[in-house]
Specification:
The protein has about 425 residues and is α/β, with parallel strands linked by helices. Helix content is about 35%, strand content about 20%. It is built from 13 helices and 13 strands. The strands form two sheets. The protein has an eleven-stranded mixed β-sheet with strand order 3-2-1-5-4-6-7-8-9-13-10. Strands 11-12 form a two-stranded antiparallel ribbon. Helix 4 links the parallel strand 4 and strand 5. It is globular, with a radius of gyration of 21 Å.
Amino acid sequence: MHEWIAQDKAAHREIMLSAYPDQTIAGTMAGAQSSTSGRLLAWLFVFIASIFLVSCGSRPESGALAISTANAPGAVEHEILIYTTREKDDRPDTYFNGERGEGVSYAKATVSVPPEPAHKPGQIEWPSRLPGDSEKEFTARSASYIADKAAMRQELNAKLMQLPKGKRDVFLFIHGYNTMFAEGLYRFTQFVHDADYPGVPVLFTWASRGQLTDYVYDLNSALVARTALEETIRDLSNSKAERIVILAHSMGNWLLMETARQAPAADLKRLSAKIEQVVLAAPDIDIDVFKDQLRALSKKARPKKPFIILVSEDDRALGISRRIAGGKARVGAYDNEAELAELGAIVVDLTKVESGDSANHSKFAQIAALSPELRAVLQQRDLNTYNPREPNQIGQASQDLGTFVASTAQIAITLPVAVLTAPITLATGGR
């Protein structure tokens, strides 16, 4: 843990140095000479760094998957299948780093979540000292590479066939910017655990370096990963899976939308037959780009069901992204929910939900425990049976979901979550 904190402090110093007039701006601003605009952008990076460094006490760059063999009563283990474009890393207990590999690599890992009350819904209890205490912290129980695509397909189908017919589902997660390998793995494990997800969890992890100053590197890494993600979704669709749910976070939404945009129309129609739901959490996408992406998709294939977009007007990370992007609103912090709904989406407003991080950028993690109840409410309102020929079946009024009981926490939690829907227009070619 102390080593990870030292790495964070070093990164913070690097960003701080970039703000002074006699320095060039680090990372994404490398090579730019000092100027009024350069100093402004540098201070924006300082600001966002302070947000993330407060919320992240450690950064598990290497050795985070040290195996714990101690049993803990009440701890729950989750095996995650992994598709990745990251480079393999020879350092012990690390497996993958933030550099780009060649093609797709495959792996699996089992992570243990401590019992309550040690585990709090929405939180990752990082080990204070590796390999961690399974009674109080997340711990790695096993990890290994999988040889190739054929071996991964066999592994996936074996896990699916262990489930009863009608429940052979796959949950695909695509992480966002500034995410190290272990961070994406542990965050996904937390979500799967808190949501009490019964299907097969699959992580697609692309080559993010996990450095605040590498925004452009991460953005390009996401673009490089498009073909690999398309191949991954095709593999999942060709498996014995009956349904696929996709959750993307932050910059992962850019990757997902651009992957869908480049996919041939015939493939998109065939793949969409198994895709049950697509959830876009805090999308770090320019609103105009998003509209253009939806228009392009509408010409290829009408969606089986509308996207669910999780937004929060107080997302500070997306506020910084907006400033860097010339003031263009990001989808995940867009304040015109009605317009998003008209684009063909179910908009879930999390603005009033208390976040587990000071950047308010990971609120999706907080509602994982409520996802079964949220799904039930959406189904009751017939939002999951949308017919593009009868768009008016989706109500236009915002609906307060009120109080839910989070089964994983066994306590009543009141969340002021609002759901907004509207007639489908752009996503079905109506505009």
